[in-house]
Amino acid sequence: MTGTGGSLEGRNGNLFLLGCMLFLMALVSACSTARPVDTDLTGLRPDALLSTLSANVEVSYRNGDTSGTVRGLMIYRRPDRFRVVLLSPFGSTLMEAALAGEELTLLYPSQQTAFRGNVGQLPLRTGLEAWKLLPWIFDLRQPREGSDSGSVVQHQPQPQEETVRLNGGLVVEKRRTGGELVRYAGYRNVGGVALAMEYEITTADGSWVKLRLDEPEVNGELADQAFSVTLQGVRILPLSLLRGEEQKN
């Protein structure tokens, strides 16, 4: 489905929002192989680029005896704006999160507490490491050099090299020298944009999570306020003080 992205608040009432996406990314430890591109992509616009995205999301995860699938909503605006709202199975808000460049805000309404700071200040083992990868994951541009199939090695602005694997001109895998990996599958033509519907993400420590998009809407208007978390009446603490216990509440 294509159209405008709308605001996050306008879609809340109709969606079972994304549960545990943030902290599960560092809990999971399995890895799977992406399926090949097998979707008819006729009618793509050659110059089409993903600028905004609003979609239902299914998240599958596994870590030892812990596994499951949760559903929700994510919005994105190029190059580095994200917001998710996490709900319990009963519909109460567990956490709201917003990423704006390097600044990450996490709100836990039940505790009336928010954590805010540079994403690099996240303590280890809090389960939120994959936040750092999201802008990289959703940058689906084909490398400027190389053929439309095979692997291309390219240097990024940061001092890290990445290898991009292509299939028929579509990015099917990206791997950084630091060990981070994302695999893409199930491409669809959404408003003229080639959009992957499945993302398998592996962090440098081997954590794994799979995202599956449903009913995506691309390149609609998403205002700045759609990415804001309301912090009125809550205490705000440095992100460096976040402990793993917060994520269990």
Automatic annotation (TrEMBL):
Coiled coil location: none
SUPFAM superfamilies, per database record: Prokaryotic lipoproteins and lipoprotein localization factors (SSF89392)
Location in or out of the cell: Cell outer membrane
Keywords: Cell outer membrane, Chaperone, Lipoprotein, Membrane, Palmitate, Protein transport, Signal, Transport
UniProt keyword Secreted present: no
Matching Pfam families: LolB
UniProt keyword Ubl conjugation present: no
Major location category of this protein: membrane
Family: Belongs to the LolB family.
Subunit structure: Monomer.
Name of this chain's protein: Outer-membrane lipoprotein LolB
Annotated source species: Trichlorobacter ammonificans
